[in-house]
Amino acid sequence: MSDDVIVADGLRKEFTVRVRTGRLRREKRLVTAVDGIDLRVARGEMLGYIGPNGAGKSTTLKMFTGVLTPSAGEVRVCGLRPVAQRTRLALRVGVVFGQRSQLWWDLPLRDSFALLRHVYRVPAAAHAARLRRCRGLLDLDPFLDTPVRQLSLGQRMRGELTAALLHGPEVLFLDEPTIGLDVVSKQAVRGFLGELGRAGDTTLVLTTHDLADIERLCRRLVVVDHGRVVHDGSIAALHERYGSRRLLVADLDAPLPGPPALPGAPLQRQEADGHRLVFALESAGVAEVVAALAGLGAVRDVSIVEPDIEDVVARLYRSRRGSDDADLRGDDADLRGGGQPLRL
Amino acid sequence: MADASGGTLAAYRALLGAQARAQTAYRTSFVIDVVGNVGSTVFDVLTVLVIFGVTRELGGFTLRETMVMVGLSTCAFAVADLLVGSIERLPRYVRTGLLDAVLVRPLGALPQLLLMDLPLRKVSRAAFGLAVLVIAVASAGVEWTPARALLVVLAPLAGVVFFGSVFVATATVSFWWVDSGELANSVTYGGRDFTSYPITVFEGWFRAAFAYGLGFAFVSYHPALALLGRADPLGLPAWVGWAAPAVALVAAAGAAATWRTGIRHYRSTGS
User: Fold this and answer.
1) What is the pLDDT of residues B21-47, one digit of tens each?
2) Cα(B87)–Cα(B119) distance, rounded to whole angstroms?
């Protein structure tokens, strides 16, 4: 187990909040943001940490980095206790908080990087080599001499990523690294993180709302809700567990007289007045379903839709929340995919 | 470890350098800021002079004697305000996430916050405070002994440490109680005003609380008595004037403990 860079056992964080209960009366209420998280992350792993707003993702990352003191439980990162050994840990981890900055607002990006070399006491040669690599991969040169306050969000995020990596951290924590970015910047950030992960010597832990981040980058997915881990495993395991299946979409020349009953492939829905049928592939194979359909009428086109992670996660949240569904939709634009047209 | 601590110092120096560069980027506006900033401190000293325009003694002390207290107080407060005063913006650091950013770096959080927001324009106040102290001491007719020469250096330093501790401790309260700013101000600025006068002009529980409960009597009143060789009209023994550095160290230890506890209670902001 010595190769686990993150070990958390029964990690909890509670906050007391004062709630107005009357004109002058206030009541203390205990809010549990993180409710007993057990987690082990091996060196070199790329871990996606997802959950709805308020699920405790950021709070957990802040406990991993020594910003917040846990209310209970044990946590070790790189073998260190984050709060008690905060400054030692800081030398070995990198942190990108999407809505915080590690950069100096009034200084050119280049100067921020130079300052961070002193802050982290990095030898000049190592610093220069890492900066050169980031400049190439993240295309920093066009804005290296621009004051940070004048950078676009995408440019700033590329700067933040560089800033977090200049001291060669063993673990990189990313809290919403793609939030608010345009498509091009998102791709640049994902491409860069993918590259970093493939190199294998940096452990990546990222929280996100954007499931595409996870699909591109992470083999392992941890889903949290209400401060608890509700899924920990591969994306495939998530699909399996929550019954998401591949879909077979068949376009027909003419609608069938009645809904077909195919063993092992229940009909999910009909579209275009019965010209399009969508089946869930449970135990039946593609060939069986196509053969059965061909026996019923003329099939014009067949396509297979891989399960959509957004769909799965939305279903997962919904099954846990029941009537809170509306709330979920309100604050989680990325998870609205649930009942929408298929992505082909 | 010598190497590591040298590296830490270099890191702090780099932070200070960046701060200085950012603030002095617009030279003219910086100069105006520096000059403008001396204003309120001059006003504080003028207030005392105006009072002596209508009275010959204040709480049993002459103008020259009182000015030693004013000098000690002004100098200590202005330097502490320059070095540590920006910590009263702690609630803002919490809100903007600067505290989070600072906590993930391999340096102390408090020194980083202070260095990243060092109000260099206040250097004029510190210089003015020092000038007031030098002039007041020079014109007060002090009978110099080696011990008093030492005290005239140590007492203002102790005062800086003391006021700095008050700044840190009162700002830290905002970790628990976000709207604590008014209370914090009444202690820091109230304390500054309190130390600008002989404590004999105050009375009752108020004097007891500020002078000895919070320890402000050791910033200017007692050191000034020791420098001037005057017995305390309130009856405390002469050595009390020499206790200022010890009191300052106790205050610093208390402030450090408060800060550490506050950081543990820090709740950060959402996301």
Assistant:
1) 888 878 888 888 888 888 778 888 888
2) 11
Smallest CA–CA distance from A117 into chain B, residue = B11
* CA A218 – CA A216 distance, rounded (Å): 6
The b/e string for A260-299 (b: 16+ C-beta within 10 A; e otherwise) is bebeebeeeeeeeeeebbebbbeebeeeebeebbeeeeeb
Phi, psi of A242 (to 5 degrees): -100, 20
Token code pair at residue B119: 């109000």
In 3D space, the residue among A14, A24, A99, A93 whose CA is nearest the CA of residue A59 turns out to be A14
A134 token code pair:
């980031």
β-bridge mates for residue A279, sequence order: A248, A267
Q: Taking an 8 Å Cβ-Cβ cutoff, which residues of chain A contact chain B?
A: 15, 58-59, 62, 65-69, 83, 86-88, 90-91, 93, 95, 97-102, 104, 106-107, 111, 115, 118-121, 175-176
Query: What are all long-range contacts of A81-86, with beta carbons under 8 Å and residues at least 24 apart?
Result: A83/B264, A86/B103
Searching chain A, which residue's CA lies closest to the CA of residue B25? A106
Among the partner residues A69, A93, A119, nearest to B14 by beta-carbon distance = A119
0.95 surpassed by complex ipTM: no
pTM over 0.90: no
Whole-angstrom Cα distance, residue B71 to residue B45?
9
User: Inter-chain contact A102–B104, Cβ cutoff 8 Å?
Assistant: yes
- Helix, strand, or coil (residue B64): helix
Helix (H, G, I), strand (E, B) or coil at A170: coil
SS3 at position A208: strand
Beta-carbon count within 10 A of B128 CB: 20
Residue A100 has its nearest CB partner, among B97, B265, B266, at B97
pLDDT digits (tens, 9 = 90+) for B72-122: 999 999 999 999 999 999 988 888 888 999 999 999 999 999 998 888 889
Give all strands of the β-sheet with A46-50 in edge-to-edge order: A93-97, A171-175, A203-208, A46-50, A220-225, A228-234
Q: What is the mean pLDDT of residues A330-343?
A: 35
Q: What would the two tokens of residue A15 be?
A: 């906050």
Predicted local distance difference test score (pLDDT) of residue A298: 78
pLDDT at A334 over 70: no
